[in-house]
């Protein structure tokens, strides 16, 4: 059995990498990839904890998170696509 | 499989009957999307109105009902929450009216537009009822998704840019929220906030992990409240989304998040005193920074809608101040403040929309010298702006006063510094707010229209048809009347 | 003993895969490379799910993330660039500050997570190790999680309508 803290450290590093991608990259699609990494880190936590939970609440939560991630990406890409039509670029500048 | 579980589910079905009504509206509108109607605007509008009113009637029917936890601890309902949901329903109907008189973008003919609006109501209503981390997360996401879509409904470059900014902020906020919730789940082994073991387990958790996880987990709600670390999107979104949509964003999600927060704070007591204290100080600090930063940023704005956007950040600060006072007076104050906030912001955006549609007035300067021709509108403008500032004789005054009183009482009983600080900063901010709110009536009445401006604006002016003129008048009357009436008779709400 | 060691070997191997490919997203400037690194990373996460006894989640991860999200993303990359044979690059901004935030955060989290005895949480039931989760998940969807399930159905519909309408318009 892998100790929970090891999985938590893995997910924490994944979380930090995702955050760094969000802060660092200019391309909106790459920023969304960073968001996906954070969501995966959270899901890893959930699944790791639900190993010890007979009612599997963590696994259920991670299923919902996945569905939300898909819909988020669908809307995001629609907006990115429209923005590309207007600006010819998908780089973000928050000004 | 236990049969009692199914019994519980069947018994709790009436709790979500109004929400089922809104869900039915969404499904009907989806079907209506694919039918080539002759008058799509009529179909969308009337369906939304019928179901919106149905929602409110069913909610009134739930009033004073004996509601326990529903759906195995997913949601709970009491009179306070029902009051919040009734408020959401009212705001939804008002924004339907504003959308119907918005003529420039022709959004009323798009069935999808009505669908996304209904989804905002559903998300808000679900958020108010939620008592479970998963439900809170889902409701916040439902609110966000429809909001991202609606922001882009002005179909221009700026609208899309604002939508992308909103979406990225929202996606990051939601990802952080999930991460925080996952750690909370690890600490407690449950997702239900009403479960006693949730708070019991939290109080034995180490402070560093708990603080980190709890802060991340409330980010989603703070994002919906537009509290300060999560506010930078607000300016672009309110400025570039269609105005009826901006009016909806400024009110409905915030009020829903506020009531959800109130529900969570009600469950806090099992926590240890130090933990409670830490939460109150942290939220109090966010409230303080929100009201001050929102005000200062609003001072520097040239466009009226951006000013309203930042002023809504500042009002979020006051709402959070109500959240952290664990007393009956704060509950009443919060309900009253939320109701007045919703009404006056709807009125303000309605006015802005009228002048934007007819006169193309966007910045303060555009309002120069309009007082001569539109004296009656000006009276409405003055009332709304005074109410937003929080001065008598408007209900905005009562709302602020009640918040201040609640803060003062709490300070006297507990002598915690944060309450006094909030009180002092609240009063100071009211004074600052006076400058930018009153600037609008000042430009309206006392600034002369420049000569070159005159011809320029006359050329841009669009004649609003008579029917719409009346629609606007009725809307404003409906929104402004309560602001005066509630000043003299605040007991109507309480 | 041998089997346990083999298990942890696979586990840490996949963990390393996840981290290395996630780091590659951060380091590479080529957007398509980033997308493929994400694919590898998500696949590694799916393997970890399976190793933790969450077989259904693992398969859902492969189907939804790799089959859905990544294909969408790669389409997104291709639709929003003029393909002329040159690589699609992304610029970096505030590199130093974000690296500082990231390393600081990961050391902080690593410290607080490793110092805490998670297995001693009162709710944790060492005997309840989950196995064969599909049946339980199915029942949970229709009982405990019925309301979220209905809500997310509406949410998918809303996202679908919003996404298609915006892209079409």
Automatic annotation (TrEMBL), chain A:
It is found in: Cell membrane; Membrane. It catalyses: a quinone + NADH + 5 H(+)(in) = a quinol + NAD(+) + 4 H(+)(out). This is NADH-quinone oxidoreductase subunit K. NCBIfam families: PRK05715.1-2. One of its GO terms (biological process) is ATP synthesis coupled electron transport. One of its GO terms (molecular function) is NADH dehydrogenase (quinone) (non-electrogenic) activity. One of its GO terms (cellular component) is plasma membrane. InterPro entries: NADH_UbQ_OxRdtase_chain4L/K (IPR001133), NUOK/Mnh_C1-like (IPR039428). The chain crosses the membrane at residues 6-23, 30-49, 61-81. It comes from Persicobacter diffluens. It holds the Pfam family Oxidored_q2. Its EC number is 7.1.1.-. It is a multi-pass membrane protein. Gene3D superfamilies: 1.10.287.3510. NDH-1 is composed of 14 different subunits. Subunits NuoA, H, J, K, L, M, N constitute the membrane sector of the complex. It is an enzyme of class 7 (translocase). It comes from the Bacteria.
From TrEMBL, chain C:
Its EC number is 7.1.1.-. It catalyses: a quinone + NADH + 5 H(+)(in) = a quinol + NAD(+) + 4 H(+)(out). It holds the Pfam family Oxidored_q3. The chain crosses the membrane at residues 6-26, 31-52, 58-83, 95-113, 145-167. One of its GO terms (molecular function) is NADH dehydrogenase (ubiquinone) activity. InterPro entries: NADH_UbQ/plastoQ_OxRdtase_su6, Nuo/plastoQ_OxRdtase_6_NuoJ. NDH-1 shuttles electrons from NADH, via FMN and iron-sulfur (Fe-S) centers, to quinones in the respiratory chain. Couples the redox reaction to proton translocation (for every two electrons transferred, four hydrogen ions are translocated across the cytoplasmic membrane), and thus conserves the redox energy in a proton gradient. This is NADH-quinone oxidoreductase subunit J. It comes from Persicobacter diffluens.
């Amino acid at each position: 059995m892998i100790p929970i803290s090891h999985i938590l450290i893995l997910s924490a590093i994944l979380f930090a990498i995702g955050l760094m991608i969000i802060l660092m990259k200019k391309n909106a699609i790459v920023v969304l990839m960073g968001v996906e990494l954070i969501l995966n880190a959270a899901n890893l936590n959930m699944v790791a904890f639900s190993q010890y939970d007979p009612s599997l609440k963590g696994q259920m939560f991670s299923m919902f998170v996945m569905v939300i991630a898909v819909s988020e990406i669908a809307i995001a890409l629609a907006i990115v696509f429209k923005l590309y039509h207007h600006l010819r670029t998908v780089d973000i500048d928050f000004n | 499989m236990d049969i009692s579980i199914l019994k519980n589910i069947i018994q709790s079905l009436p709790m979500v009957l109004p929400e089922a009504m809104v869900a039915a509206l969404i499904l009907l509108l989806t079907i209506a999307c694919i039918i080539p109607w002759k008058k799509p605007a009529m179909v969308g509008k009337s369906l939304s109105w019928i179901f919106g009113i149905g929602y409110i009637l069913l909610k009134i029917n739930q009033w004073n009902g004996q509601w326990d936890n529903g759906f195995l601890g997913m949601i709970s309902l009491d009179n306070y929450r029902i009051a919040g949901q009734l408020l959401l329903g009212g705001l939804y109907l008002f924004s339907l009216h504003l959308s119907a008189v918005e003529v420039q973008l022709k959004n009323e003919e798009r069935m999808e537009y009505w669908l996304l609006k209904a989804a905002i109501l559903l998300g808000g209503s679900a958020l108010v009822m939620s008592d479970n981390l998963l439900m809170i997360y889902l409701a916040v996401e439902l609110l966000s998704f429809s909001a991202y879509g609606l922001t882009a409904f002005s179909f221009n470059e700026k609208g899309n840019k604002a939508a992308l900014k909103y979406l990225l902020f929202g996606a990051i906020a939601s990802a952080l929220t999930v991460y925080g919730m996952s750690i909370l789940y690890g600490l407690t082994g449950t997702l239900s906030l009403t479960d006693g073991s949730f708070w019991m387990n939290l109080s034995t958790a180490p402070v560093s992990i708990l603080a980190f996880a709890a802060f991340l987990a409330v980010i989603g709600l703070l994002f919906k409240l537009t509290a300060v670390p999560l506010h930078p999107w607000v300016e672009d979104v309110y400025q570039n989304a269609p105005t009826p949509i901006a009016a909806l964003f400024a009110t409905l999600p915030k009020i829903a998040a506020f009531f959800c927060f109130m529900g969570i704070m009600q469950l806090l007591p099992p926590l240890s005193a130090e933990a409670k204290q830490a939460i109150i100080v942290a939220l109090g600090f966010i409230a303080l920074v929100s009201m001050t930063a929102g005000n200062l940023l609003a001072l520097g704005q040239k466009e009226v809608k951006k000013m309203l956007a930042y002023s809504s950040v500042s009002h979020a600060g006051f709402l959070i101040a109500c959240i952290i006072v664990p007393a009956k007076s704060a509950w009443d104050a919060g309900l009253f403040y939320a109701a007045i906030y919703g009404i006056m912001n709807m009125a303000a955006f309605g006015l802005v929309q009228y002048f934007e549609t007819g006169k193309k007035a966007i910045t303060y300067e555009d309002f120069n010298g309009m007082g001569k021709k539109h004296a009656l509108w000006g009276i409405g403008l003055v009332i709304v702006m005074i109410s937003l500032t929080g001065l008598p004789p408007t209900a905005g005054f009562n709302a602020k006063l009640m918040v201040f009183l609640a803060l003062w009482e709490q300070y006297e009983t507990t002598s915690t510094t944060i309450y006094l600080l909030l009180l002092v900063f609240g009063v100071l901010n009211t004074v600052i707010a006076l400058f930018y709110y009153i600037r609008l009536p000042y430009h309206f009445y006392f600034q002369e229209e420049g000569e070159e401006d005159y011809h320029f604006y006359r050329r841009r002016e669009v004649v609003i048809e008579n029917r719409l003129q009346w629609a606007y008048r009725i809307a404003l009357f409906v929104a402004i009347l309560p602001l005066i009436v509630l000043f003299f008779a605040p007991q109507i709400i309480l | 003993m041998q089997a346990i060691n083999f298990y942890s070997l696979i586990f840490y191997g996949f963990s390393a895969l996840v981290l290395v490919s996630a780091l590659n997203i951060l380091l590479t400037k080529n957007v398509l490379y980033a997308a493929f690194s994400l694919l590898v990373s998500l696949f590694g996460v799916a393997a970890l799910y399976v190793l933790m006894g969450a077989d259904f989640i693992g398969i859902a991860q492969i189907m939804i993330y790799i089959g859905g999200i990544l294909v969408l993303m790669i389409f997104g990359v291709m639709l929003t660039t003029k393909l002329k044979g040159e690589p699609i690059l992304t610029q970096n901004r505030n590199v130093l500050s974000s690296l500082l935030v990231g390393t600081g955060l990961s050391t902080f989290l690593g410290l607080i997570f490793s110092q805490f005895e998670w297995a001693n949480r009162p709710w944790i039931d060492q005997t309840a190790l989950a196995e064969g989760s599909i049946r339980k998940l199915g029942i949970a969807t229709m009982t405990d999680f019925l309301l979220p399930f209905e809500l997310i159905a509406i949410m998918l519909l809303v996202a679908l309508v919003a996404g298609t309408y915006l892209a079409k318009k």
